[in-house]
Amino acid sequence: TGWIESVPPAAELEPGKSIAFSVATSADLAKVTWRTSGPQNIFIQKMVDFFWNVGAPESEIDRLNDVGALINPVQIGSWIDMSAKDGMDGGWFFPVPMALSLCIEAADAGEPTAKLSEWAQRHGVEQCLSVGRDMGAAPPRQTEFRLALPGAGLSEQLDVALAAFAHFGFPAVPDGLLNVLKASTVPGLELSVITSSEGFVRLGIMQPTPTPAEISALCAAADASDEALMDFARRAMDADEPRPTFVEYQYLIPGYGYSVYKEGFGVVFWWDAGADNA
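and the corresponding C-alpha cells:
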C-alpha cells in the first residue's frame, strides 16, 4: 500500500476533529516532504501497518509504541519525503507540546542528546513542539525535535538559535541567509534538530511567515527560482497566493545526504496543505 492509503478517511473523524496536511520543499524543488497528522485513535493502526508493510525494523515499530505510551499524544502523524535523485524516506512524529526532557527519551542516547540537553539548560529551552523518528531500514536511526525558542523578540530568539549552531559544532549560517533572517521582525523562531547515535544529522532555524520579498531573496541566495517555487506551491496547495507557514535555514551534515539529498546549507519552505474535517 502507498503512504496516502495510511491516512485515515475523514469519515472516521469524531465531530470537531480534523486531519492536517503540510508540505515542505527545498527552494530548488529537489526535495519534497509530505506530512499528515490527526487523532491518535484513528491514525495509529494504519500507520503501524504501513511501516510494517514497507519493511521498517520491528525494533523501530516497538520504539514508536514505547514512546507513544510514554508521551501519550492526542495527535500523531507520519511523513514521507522524496528527492530528485530518487531518495525516499519516511517516519512518524508527535506534533504535541511536551517537555524536552520527555521527548529526548525518543532518541538514541549519545553525544548529540547530551549536547542538546546542555544547550537547552543553558538557554532555558524547555518545550518541545514535536518529536519524531525516521523509519528507514538502514541505521543510524534519526530523531527529529522541533523546539520553541525563548526570548522577548526575534533577536533574542536568534541568539539562542545561533548558540545551538556553535554548541553542536555546525558551521556559521552564511551572511546571505542570515541577513534576511536578521531583517525580519516576526518573532516565533523555532529550532529543528535531528540527532542520531553517531552524531548530529541536521540543524535548522525556522522563521514564521516569510514575506514575498524574503522568499525572493532566499531563493536567490540558494540559486533557485522563486517563480518555479511559487508555481509549484500554487498547484500543490490549489491556491492563488499561497504563503509559507515557515522558512527553514538548515544544514545537513556531509555524509547524511547518502548521495540523494543535498548536504550543507539549504533553504526549505513549509506550507499548510489544508485539512480534512469531520
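(Above: one complete record from the training split.) The helical segments are 40-53, 58-71, 100-103, 111-123, 154-167, 175-183, 212-221, 226-237.
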